[in-house]
Specification:
Blueprint (H helix, E strand, L loop, with lengths): L2 H8 L3 H9 L7 E2 L5 E2 L2 H15 L4 H12 L5 H35 L9 H6 L4 H4 L2
Antiparallel strand pairs: 1-2
Helix pairs in contact: 1-3, 3-4
Length: 136
């Protein structure tokens, strides 16, 4: 199948397929005599794997490591679990950071009267002028 068909079958855009090839995440595709890329069923499975990993927030480096483990039939599942566990911890840290940001912004929004007056605790906090308001 050509790159458009592989893109449709995998859910990965042709542009991303080319990018994954350029960074070595996937092997370069075979070429026809006309120099068109040709993909097989295994390539589509690999692209789907990458898409699922990326949708779960794995970095390109993590995705590459997982892909290598997926292809390595002698792998230890502990290696896969370690990558996934570290990723879960990073996600949980990020969720906590986002929650703190939301709490701070929620407090600032609550403190802002939102009327026609020019004074605004949100802008004051962003400018570092009113540290007391920013502490939720």
């Amino acid at each position: 199948m050509n790159i458009g068909e592989a893109a449709k079958a995998s859910g990965v855009s042709a542009k991303m397929i080319r990018y994954y090839e350029s960074i070595g995440l996937i092997s370069e595709a075979d070429r026809t005599h006309s120099n068109y890329r040709v993909y097989g069923t295994n390539d589509v499975h690999t692209l789907r794997f990458i898409k699922r990993a990326r949708n779960l927030g794995f970095s390109m480096e993590e995705t590459s490591a997982l892909l290598a483990l997926w292809h390595d039939r002698t792998r230890a599942s502990a290696d896969v679990k370690q990558i996934a566990t570290e990723h879960v911890q990073a996600l949980e840290t990020r969720i906590s950071e986002l929650q703190e940001m939301a709490d701070t912004l929620r407090h600032l929004v609550h403190c802002c009267s939102g009327d026609n007056r020019p004074d605004c605790p949100i802008l004051s906090n962003l400018a570092g002028q009113d540290r007391a308001v920013g502490q939720a």
